[in-house]
């Protein structure tokens, strides 16, 4: 049985041989690392065909059912072919003529290959590769050359042994009259007669196939290539006799119409803007300037046509303007017009024929001259686009109208066009960028999205397909995670439908402990995460989007610090300011206010850092000085300056001093002196951590300024203060929020029961005492909690002696007392967006 290499190796006349120098290490590195998959290697050969100006590429796989070379792979394209110089350039690795020629010669295509390494992908498919090629200038002849990768031997000195590749040139009839060659081409659905008809082409034959080729799954190969095929007829690919169509052909079409279906109102408006008398004639839009007419078809799809691997070959969205069969705006989807609505443009395709533009085509045939005729034509294009956008908007409005007819709880107020659709579009683009190795770089060095969280290895196309569904499959969830104060405010995982709020971020920490603000916070972070998607969707570069969001993030943090309300946030800021003198001073004063003191920041060499007053004290108003000693290490006795602190107390006529520092000496002789001085001068020595812990527990444990003052006026040594703080936090105090929730739960258990009996405080107390954790609850504590809830219910509940009178439902009561129970309760109007 003959091989292709043997058939062509002796045909015709021999030309100047090619000298190729490649090391086996380089071949293995480039082909086996970059093109591990044989499917990826075949895809690379298809790209090479596109770069050669082909309109058709055919992959012939061995079928095992006929043909003499059934164990070979054939890749044919009807591109420009290669002359002798082209074959020589073919094996130059590290550069390519394509790199300098931005556009291809015939179709003005933007070249994909840049470094001339694509042909080495064949090494992952076979050990031997033969190129047969024909160029238009020598249409009666064919050239061939065969390379055997096994001939490249490593040079022990670090170089490579050059390999000589013979080049044969022979009449095409010698090739086509060979019965073995003809039968094998027909076996893989490549028509030998076309080789005689076409002025130029290239045929790659791979022999001595590697084991990986036998593992190629036809279905998988078809799917991979379908994602790489653009929508339209500019470039076609076949596997044996099967046409591999673009996966975008399966997209859902929202609207489709021919140019001749433009509504009369659009045509009237077009007459006004162009001054031409436009009419529909024989299926074309005709006027004096366009006597041959403008015709074509417009469609808008549900899924985005923009992005994916197919954009590497030919874009699928925008305007495709043909003049006498030639596409004149290969790389310009807007035909030079101003930017249009991206949401529609990403889904929009218009194939337009306008032969009357032929007279103003520029010489390179890659553009159209500016002028009056072009202006009128672009007016037509804009009219078509806005008609398409109008129909797309009508489709969206129809979906919204359908939602209005749904019952409460099923109606979707948050339209998918605001969430799922743009996210799906973004994922499609990201998937395409990942395949092409051009994924955008944002503010982060690792190039990740700012807020979008895309798990490694996730099938972005599959996720996008689910998001394109008209119905929201699952509701969104909000989880809290601790990512650190400098981390992002939110991470959005579209695969799991989860927004992860960073509990350590300033704005989250400041509002998440407020039940009334929590839902608003979740809405804000949702909109913030989607803002990134919108900006990327509108065409902003990833780096620009990252810079904008980084600036917004710093603004949000700054605004939060400018108006501090959350005790949890104040406690954390205090905890983090131990090494910054000014921050520690300010945060100490703010912490005193949060605990219930009237406090003022003073600072200065002759003043304490702050003053705090408490009027509601058994012995009358008390005043204490506030002092902050920042330090990265344990402060020395001199740095503390106890004498100076005592002088501040006397100058302010204060009753004591609350000193805060990151830590205190506690082991050496000097340390003992520090403790003695604190005791003698009545300076209460707190650590930053201790005051932060007390502040963080203040609301839950009902810690007040009076509790703090009791420690400041009675405990001075660091160890004594530490014990007093521990006792304060360990003291068995009732968790009031938990008790409030228990009261509401008890009322819900009584709801609908014993309707002939009034609800009483004793009944609620009895039910609560049976709940876990409340076995020792006191009646007075429950009564006080009921009174607090009645006062906070805004008319939802009132008391008449021992009776509890409900004026609203239990659910509504829960919403009205959210500030006490710490839970905003269920929404009054249940939606479908969140769990």
Give a description of the structure.
This protein is an alpha+beta fold and 835 residues long. A nine-stranded mixed beta sheet has the order 1-6-5-4-7-3-2-8-9. Strands 10-13-16-14-15 form a five-stranded mixed beta sheet, covered by helices on one side. It is built from 32 helices and 27 strands. Strand 8 and strand 9 (242-244) form a beta hairpin.
Topology readout:
Blueprint: H1 4-9, E1 13-20, H2 24-34, H3 38-51, E2 56-60, E3 73-77, H4 84-90, H5 97-100, E4 126-134, E5 141-148, E6 163-171, H6 172-176, H7 179-187, H8 192-197, E7 201-209, H9 211-214, H10 218-228, E8 236-239, E9 242-244, E10 253-258, H11 264-274, E11 279-281, E12 284-286, E13 295-301, E14 318-323, E15 326-327, H12 342-345, E16 348-353, H13 372-404, H14 420-436, H15 460-467, E17 477-481, E18 490-493, E19 498-502, H16 506-511, H17 515-537, H18 542-562, H19 567-576, H20 581-595, E20 598-601, E21 610-614, E22 622-628, H21 637-640, H22 642-651, E23 656-661, H23 669-681, E24 683-687, H24 688-696, H25 698-701, H26 705-712, H27 718-730, H28 736-750, E25 759-760, H29 761-769, H30 779-792, E26 797-800, E27 803-806, H31 810-816, H32 818-821
Helix pairs in contact: 11-13, 14-15, 14-17, 19-20, 19-24, 28-29, 28-30, 29-30
Summarize the structure.
The protein contains 32 helices and 27 strands. The protein is an alpha+beta fold.
Rg measurement, Å: 39 Å
Can you tell me the residue ranges where pLDDT is under 50 for at least 5 consecutive residues?
98-103, 108-116, 436-447
Number of strands: 27
| Terminal Cα span | 68 Å
Beta-strand level of the residues, as a percent range? Answer: 15-25%
Strand line-up of the largest beta sheet: 1-6-5-4-7-3-2-8-9
User: What count of helical segments does DSSP give?
Assistant: 32
Average residue-wise pLDDT: 82
**Largest sheet composition:** 9 strands, mixed
**Helical content class:** 40-55%
Shape: elongated
Give the class from helix and strand content and strand pairing: alpha+beta
């Amino acid at each position: 049985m003959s091989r292709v290499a043997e058939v062509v190796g002796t045909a015709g006349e021999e030309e100047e041989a090619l000298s190729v120098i490649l090391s086996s290490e380089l071949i293995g590195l480039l082909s086996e690392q970059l093109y591990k998959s044989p499917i990826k290697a075949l895809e690379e050969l298809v790209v090479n065909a596109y770069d050669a100006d082909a309109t058709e590429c055919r992959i012939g796989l061995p079928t095992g059912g006929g043909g003499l070379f059934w164990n070979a792979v054939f890749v044919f394209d009807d591109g420009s072919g290669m002359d002798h110089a082209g074959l020589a350039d073919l094996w130059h690795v590290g550069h390519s003529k394509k790199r300098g020629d931005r556009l291809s010669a015939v179709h003005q295509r933007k070249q994909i290959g840049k470094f001339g390494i694509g042909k080495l992908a064949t090494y992952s498919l076979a050990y031997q590769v033969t190129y047969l090629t024909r160029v238009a200038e020598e249409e009666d002849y064919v050239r061939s050359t065969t390379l055997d990768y096994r001939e490249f031997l490593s040079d022990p000195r670090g170089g490579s042994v050059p390999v000589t590749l013979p080049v044969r040139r022979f009449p095409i009839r010698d090739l086509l009259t060979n019965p073995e060659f003809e039968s094998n081409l027909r076996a893989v659905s490549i028509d030998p007669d076309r080789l005689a008809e076409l002025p130029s082409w290239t045929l790659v034959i791979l022999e001595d196939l590697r084991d990986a080729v036998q593992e190629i799954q036809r279905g998988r190969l078809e799917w991979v290539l379908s994602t790489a095929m653009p929508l339209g007829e500019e470039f076609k690919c076949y596997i044996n006799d099967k046409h591999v169509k673009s996966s975008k052909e399966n997209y859902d079409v929202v609207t489709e119409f021919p140019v001749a279906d433009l509504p009369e109102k659009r045509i009237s408006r077009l007459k006004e803007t162009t001054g031409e008398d436009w009419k529909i004639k024989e299926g074309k839009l005709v006027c004096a300037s366009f006597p041959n007419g403008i015709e074509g078809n417009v469609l808008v799809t549900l899924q985005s046509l923009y992005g994916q691997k197919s954009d590497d070959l030919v874009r699928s969205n925008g305007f495709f303007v043909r003049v006498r069969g030639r596409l004149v705006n290969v790389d310009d989807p807007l035909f030079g017009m101003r930017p249009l609505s991206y949401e529609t443009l990403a889904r929009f395709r218009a194939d337009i024929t306008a032969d009357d533009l032929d007279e103003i085509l520029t010489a390179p045939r890659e553009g159209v001259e500016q002028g009056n005729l072009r202006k009128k034509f672009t007016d037509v294009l804009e009219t078509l686009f806005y008609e398409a956008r109008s129909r797309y908007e009508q489709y969206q409005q129809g979906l919204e109208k359908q939602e209005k007819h749904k019952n409460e709880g099923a109606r979707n107020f948050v339209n998918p066009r605001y969430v799922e659709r743009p996210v799906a579009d973004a994922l499609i683009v990201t998937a395409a960028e990942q395949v092409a190795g051009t994924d955008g770089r944002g503010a982060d060095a690792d190039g990740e999205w700012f807020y979008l969280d895309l798990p490694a290895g996730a099938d972005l196309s599959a996720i996008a397909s689910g998001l394109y569904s008209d119905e929201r499959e699952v509701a969104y969830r909000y989880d809290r995670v601790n990512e650190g104060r400098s981390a992002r405010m939110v991470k959005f995982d579209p695969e799991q439908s989860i927004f992860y709020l960073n509990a350590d971020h300033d704005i989250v920490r400041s509002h998440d402990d407020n039940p009334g603000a929590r839902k608003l916070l979740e809405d804000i972070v949702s909109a913030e995460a989607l803002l990134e998607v919108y900006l990327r969707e509108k065409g902003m570069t990833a780096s620009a989007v990252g810079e904008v969001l980084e600036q917004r993030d710093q603004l949000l943090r700054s605004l939060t610090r400018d108006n501090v309300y959350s005790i949890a946030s104040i406690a954390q800021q205090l905890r983090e300011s131990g090494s910054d003198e000014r921050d520690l001073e300010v945060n100490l004063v703010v912490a005193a206010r949060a605990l219930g003191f009237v406090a003022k920041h003073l600072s200065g060499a002759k003043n304490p850092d702050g003053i705090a007053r408490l009027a509601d004290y058994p012995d009358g108003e008390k005043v204490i000085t506030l002092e902050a000693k920042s330090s990265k290490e344990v402060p020395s006795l001199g740095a503390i300056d106890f004498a100076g602190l005592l002088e501040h107390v006397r100058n302010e006529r204060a009753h004591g001093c609350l000193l805060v520092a990151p830590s205190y000496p506690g082991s050496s002789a000097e340390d003992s002196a520090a403790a003695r001085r604190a005791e003698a001068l009545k300076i209460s020595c707190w650590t930053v951590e201790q005051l932060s812990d007390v502040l963080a527990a203040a609301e839950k444990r009902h810690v007040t300024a009076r509790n703090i003052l009791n420690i400041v006026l009675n405990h001075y040594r660091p160890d004594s203060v530490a014990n007093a703080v521990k006792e304060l936090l360990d003291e068995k105090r009732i968790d009031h929020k938990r008790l409030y929730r228990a009261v509401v739960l008890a009322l819900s258990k009584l709801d609908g029961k014993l309707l002939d009996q009034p609800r009483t405080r004793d009944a609620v107390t009895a039910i609560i005492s049976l709940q876990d954790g409340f076995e020792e609850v006191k009646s007075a504590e429950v009564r006080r909690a009921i009174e607090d809830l009645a006062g906070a219910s805004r008319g939802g509940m009132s008391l008449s002696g021992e009776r509890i009178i409900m004026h609203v439902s239990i659910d509504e009561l829960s919403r009205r007392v959210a500030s006490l129970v710490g839970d905003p309760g269920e929404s009054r109007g249940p939606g479908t967006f969140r769990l």
